[in-house]
Input
Amino acid sequence: MIQKQVVVIGGGPAGLSSAIAAAQAGARVTVIDENQRPGGQLFKQIHKFFGSREHYAGRRGIHIGTEMLKEAEALNIEVLLNSVVYGIFEDRTLGVIRDGANLSVRAERVVIATGASENPLVFPGWTLPGVMGAGAAQTMVNLHGVLPGKRCLMVGSGNVGLIVSYQLLQAGADVVAIVEADSKVGGYHVHAEKIRRHGVPILLSHTIREARGKESVEEATLVRLDKNWHPLPGTEQDLQVDFVCLAVGLTPLTELGWMANCRCQSVPGLGGFVLHHNDGMETTVPGIYAAGDCAGVEEASIAMEQGRLAGLSIAESLGLIDRTRSADQRASIQERLKELRRKPAFYDSSADLGNREASTADRASLEPLKVGPGYPTEERFQQGPTAIVECMQEIPCDPCAYVCPRGAISVGRPITKLPHLDTGKCTGCGLCIPGCPGLAIFVVDNTYSPTEALLKLPHEFLPLPKAGEIVEALDRYGRRVTEGRVIKVENPRKFDHTPVVSVVIDKRFSNEVRAVSVRRGRHGR
Amino acid sequence: MAGNEDMIICRCEEVTQAEILEAIRDGATTVSGVKRRTRAGMGLCQGRTCRKVVAKMVVTETGQSAEEVLPSTYRPPVRPVTLGTLANEWDE
Output
């Protein structure tokens, strides 16, 4: 039997945050993780994160993970990898398998930060090789450098489905379609736009009916659904795909909590049974805390805040910090959690969350955009280059407010407010383009020449176009509108792998073109 | 899901949809009830894949609410561990 002061089960964003918060207060912390490396899902998140500066917004998940590990190391947090907590017994005694041996660890305080697992979807052919969780495909592509197939059908349009689709495109696969059973896109509008403008159709009120193939997936049948999600006969269509990704929500991993007699309650909006906890993240069993997806499936920023709360509560309960001194810190975390949850960023369950703005999710027409606070006036377009902020959904995100050297973009509080563009201050320099995690900022210069406009667009695909190259100019749906002449490609270190392409096109299309393709015909539908 | 009764629900134990429906008709009103009758959820993954599907089928067939249909009892080990490993106690 080994004695520990604080043991955190799971080294993802929630677990690491709780470990760091407790260790900063002076606790001796051990993190146990079953994987080869800590960081949970962070190391396969190659996109820039949303949120505020407190949540590392604008940084890519992999970098956030690296930073947290450095912090943990500096605080002398012990990290046991390849170690599985297989059970919780009396008095917070954990059964741990490590190096083929069975180890008992008794901890004064335990944090359960075990995360969540992907939901299955059952249909004929779902057990065929080639049908996999979207997260599994993401692990294959981003961690192991293996493409699961060439032509993908993505099932589910929550943020997981949208982000993994984008990353599959980046890795060189074709995402033939995304199907969504609901009548609106589940994830963030900007994530949907990122893949739409590269030609991926999002088929709403559709689902997969069947996957077929001899040895593995060769074909899938889609079907249209009515309002009650019942299949409409006669609407079936076949798609040639060689893999199917399921992004239909996550389930909290609560086994250890049940085993420890923690109260679990079913909250459909949070993914099913979750570990019940108080304001300080303590479960109904004294000394056992929960943080992150096992306390309800939300997203990484919320998981990190919950981890910090758990770490603080533990430090207080161990007498390491004075409760009155940490009160301010806890209050500001609670405040940030409230803001993050204003417009929910839940992956799979918008149905019972009434405050979501459904109407904004799918509007891709220019009209609502033009009345938004990020869109310049007609006169302004005539005066020279200007940014356009195509951010139309109230999501918790504000990095754009910090990247403009002239302070032309502001978000303010709450963090879910739409960015406001002060076109008087904007010079069209385009530094804001790589600063937007949603890649929703563009620069348009309608004064470039009497007949041509210059566009600056984010472009996170290889191969990069070269100066002087003629490329396809695509509209918001990935349709080829015209061709463009690349003037320059900027990709300095501070853009963090979001190159900005300056391209000259026929002026008539300056409000339509939002992407370029150097791979002729591939995405030009 | 009608008409697809051969479809496998629990992959580890190869339990079909028909077998699970039969278990529910036989009186199973919980995930554990289905598990005891069919072995669904007793394989290598310990139900991590199929338990939500089984719970949904119980809800649909019996008309209970999702809150009432508890997951099956969790027991250690929550990951597959050989008896040899369990018996191999760690030396300090």
Notes: The mean pLDDT of chain B is 91. The beta strands of chain B are 8-10, 15-16. Residues 31 and 55 of chain B are 6 Å apart (CA to CA).
